[in-house]
Amino acid sequence: MADLTVETQRLLKASMAENTWHTYKAAIESFNQFRYLFNLQPTWPAPLDHIIHFIAYMSIKNQAPASIRAYISALSSIPQNSGSRRRYQVIYCKQAA
Protein backbone atom coordinates (compact mmCIF):
# COMPACT_ATOMS: atom_id res chain seq x y z
CA MET A 1 0.00 0.00 0.00
CA ALA A 2 2.92 2.36 0.66
CA ASP A 3 4.00 2.06 -2.98
CA LEU A 4 0.53 3.09 -4.12
CA THR A 5 0.58 6.12 -1.82
CA VAL A 6 3.95 7.22 -3.16
CA GLU A 7 2.79 6.75 -6.76
CA THR A 8 -0.43 8.66 -6.07
CA GLN A 9 1.53 11.59 -4.65
CA ARG A 10 3.92 11.55 -7.62
CA LEU A 11 1.04 11.58 -10.10
CA LEU A 12 -0.77 14.34 -8.25
CA LYS A 13 2.35 16.51 -8.22
CA ALA A 14 2.90 15.89 -11.93
CA SER A 15 -0.70 16.86 -12.72
CA MET A 16 0.03 20.60 -12.57
CA ALA A 17 2.94 22.91 -13.28
CA GLU A 18 5.12 23.97 -10.34
CA ASN A 19 3.90 27.59 -10.62
CA THR A 20 0.30 26.39 -10.42
CA TRP A 21 1.09 24.50 -7.21
CA HIS A 22 2.61 27.69 -5.77
CA THR A 23 -0.46 29.72 -6.76
CA TYR A 24 -2.77 27.12 -5.24
CA LYS A 25 -0.76 27.08 -2.02
CA ALA A 26 -0.94 30.88 -1.83
CA ALA A 27 -4.69 30.74 -2.46
CA ILE A 28 -5.28 28.26 0.34
CA GLU A 29 -3.12 30.28 2.75
CA SER A 30 -5.00 33.46 1.79
CA PHE A 31 -8.35 31.72 2.26
CA ASN A 32 -7.29 30.41 5.66
CA GLN A 33 -6.15 33.90 6.71
CA PHE A 34 -9.49 35.32 5.53
CA ARG A 35 -11.39 32.77 7.62
CA TYR A 36 -9.21 33.51 10.64
CA LEU A 37 -9.77 37.25 10.21
CA PHE A 38 -13.55 36.79 10.15
CA ASN A 39 -13.68 34.03 12.81
CA LEU A 40 -14.92 31.38 10.37
CA GLN A 41 -14.34 27.72 11.08
CA PRO A 42 -11.52 26.22 8.97
CA THR A 43 -13.57 23.23 7.83
CA TRP A 44 -13.09 21.31 4.59
CA PRO A 45 -14.77 21.19 2.28
CA ALA A 46 -15.37 24.88 2.82
CA PRO A 47 -18.99 26.03 2.97
CA LEU A 48 -20.13 27.86 -0.15
CA ASP A 49 -20.89 31.04 1.83
CA HIS A 50 -17.23 31.17 2.95
CA ILE A 51 -16.13 31.04 -0.68
CA ILE A 52 -18.63 33.67 -1.79
CA HIS A 53 -17.53 36.03 0.99
CA PHE A 54 -13.90 35.34 0.12
CA ILE A 55 -14.59 36.44 -3.46
CA ALA A 56 -16.15 39.66 -2.17
CA TYR A 57 -13.19 40.17 0.18
CA MET A 58 -10.69 39.77 -2.67
CA SER A 59 -12.71 42.18 -4.80
CA ILE A 60 -12.68 44.80 -2.03
CA LYS A 61 -8.91 44.30 -1.80
CA ASN A 62 -8.71 45.12 -5.55
CA GLN A 63 -7.50 41.70 -6.61
CA ALA A 64 -7.47 41.23 -10.36
CA PRO A 65 -10.32 39.09 -11.73
CA ALA A 66 -7.75 36.61 -13.09
CA SER A 67 -6.26 36.23 -9.60
CA ILE A 68 -9.69 35.67 -8.11
CA ARG A 69 -10.43 32.99 -10.71
CA ALA A 70 -7.11 31.28 -9.99
CA TYR A 71 -7.76 31.29 -6.23
CA ILE A 72 -11.27 29.89 -6.67
CA SER A 73 -9.87 27.21 -8.96
CA ALA A 74 -7.41 26.32 -6.23
CA LEU A 75 -10.15 26.07 -3.61
CA SER A 76 -12.38 24.00 -5.88
CA SER A 77 -9.55 21.52 -6.41
CA ILE A 78 -9.32 20.63 -2.73
CA PRO A 79 -12.32 18.26 -2.60
CA GLN A 80 -11.06 16.51 -5.75
CA ASN A 81 -7.50 16.21 -4.46
CA SER A 82 -8.59 15.08 -1.01
CA GLY A 83 -10.97 12.43 -2.28
CA SER A 84 -14.14 14.15 -1.08
CA ARG A 85 -17.28 13.41 -3.05
CA ARG A 86 -18.61 16.94 -2.62
CA ARG A 87 -18.13 19.19 -5.62
CA TYR A 88 -18.32 22.96 -5.71
CA GLN A 89 -20.37 24.74 -8.25
CA VAL A 90 -18.28 26.58 -10.77
CA ILE A 91 -18.04 30.23 -9.84
CA TYR A 92 -17.23 32.64 -12.61
CA CYS A 93 -15.65 35.94 -11.71
CA LYS A 94 -16.14 38.53 -14.39
CA GLN A 95 -14.68 41.96 -14.47
CA ALA A 96 -17.37 44.64 -14.40
CA ALA A 97 -17.62 46.54 -17.65
Task: List descriptors.
97 residues; disordered C terminus; mainly alpha; 4 helices
Separation of termini?
53 Å
Portion in helices: 55-70%
Radius of gyration: 15 Å
Shape: globular
- Uncertain residue ranges: 80-97
* SSE run: HHHH
Give the percentage of residues in beta strands.
under 5%
Biggest sheet layout: none
Output mean pLDDT. 80
Number of strands: 0
Helix vs. strand class: mainly alpha
Number of helical stretches of at least 4 residues:
4
What does this structure look like?
- By secondary structure, this protein is an all-alpha fold.
- 66% of the residues lie in helices and 0% in strands.
- Helix 2 (18-37) packs across helix 4 and helix 3 (48-60) packs antiparallel against helix 4 (65-82).
- The chain starts with a helix and ends in a 15-residue tail after the last helix.
- Mean pLDDT is 80; it is low at 80-97.
